[in-house]
Design brief:
This protein is an alpha+beta fold and 204 residues long. It is built from four helices and ten strands. The protein has a single domain, classed as 2-Layer Sandwich (BirA Bifunctional Protein, domain 2), CATH 3.30.930.10.
């Protein structure tokens, strides 16, 4: 789905959830090649704009979306789930990390670096997933993206998430080819754990 179409649908759903006119949504999809800019993206980190560059309302800097990358947009009503943005982001990271682990890929979050990290084939740390969120009227937007088998050269047009000292990798590059359907099923199996983090917050 073209990025702008997905963004428009997210914004409409966000409004509807905030007005209690729609249910929450976790939406799995893929985009044609595009660079997106977060609210703190500096122009110097757009190195080679070979694809469309779209300004978004999410936090963070530049990122790339394209075929072979699975995106999960997460639209949840935090008014019902504790109003804790940090807990939401942490739960999103944990969900991604646990699902990668189901395929034998050890991954982790780093406090001073945005995203999901793993050990690349050269032994160095590399980014395998991106996290970027926006909260409007306590309803979340955007979410996470995991590199299953994208063209990694496309990341060369930007400084991904403002981090120039580390590379980008994918499950395919690590020797773990995963079809989108298999990834989606694994992510859905873990969705209960992800959502239960907010149930705990709500109960407190």
């Amino acid at each position: 789905m073209p990025y702008m179409d997905a963004l428009a649908q997210q914004e409409a759903r966000n409004d509807a959830i905030a007005a209690s006119d729609a249910e929450e949504l976790i939406w799995l999809l893929e985009h044609p090649p595009v660079y997106t800019a977060g609210t703190s993206a500096p122009a110097a980190e757009l190195i080679d704009p070979r694809f469309d560059v779209i300004q978004t309302g999410r936090g963070g800097r530049y990122t790339y979306h394209g075929p072979g990358q699975r995106v999960a947009y997460v639209l949840l009503d935090l008014r019902r789930r504790g109003r804790d943005v940090r807990a939401f982001v942490h739960a999103l990271e944990s969900w991604t990390i646990a699902t990668l682990g189901d395929f034998g890929v050890e991954a982790w979050a780093v406090p001073d670096r945005i995203g999901i990290w793993t050990r690349d084939i050269d032994g160095q740390e590399a980014k395998i997933g991106a996290i970027g969120v926006r909260i409007r009227r306590w309803v979340t937007m955007h979410g996470m993206a995991v590199n299953l088998d994208p063209d990694l050269s496309h990341f060369g047009g930007i400084v991904p998430c403002g981090i120039a000292d580390y590379g980008v990798t994918s499950m395919a590059r690590l020797g773990v080819p995963v079809a989108q359907e298999a990834w989606d099923e694994a992510l859905q199996r873990r969705a209960g754990d992800f959502l239960s983090a907010f149930a705990t917050i709500e109960a407190e």
